[in-house]
Fold this sequence. Notes:
With 60 residues, the chain is mainly alpha-helical.
Amino acid sequence: MTIHSVVRYVSEHSDLAYGTLFLAAFLEAVPVLGTFIPGSTIILSLSALIATGDLNPVVV
Length: 60
């Protein structure tokens, strides 16, 4: 699974984007998992969906 596939999946299912953002931030904060999960990159990639209108910036 690549970052591009995550962003594509979330853009197709925008109702899951908020949960995905939460999980990315949470899993990056876990000491062992944070080493393997690029949470910052996922968050920045998904925040680009705000510009396309797929996500509400107030909720994010």
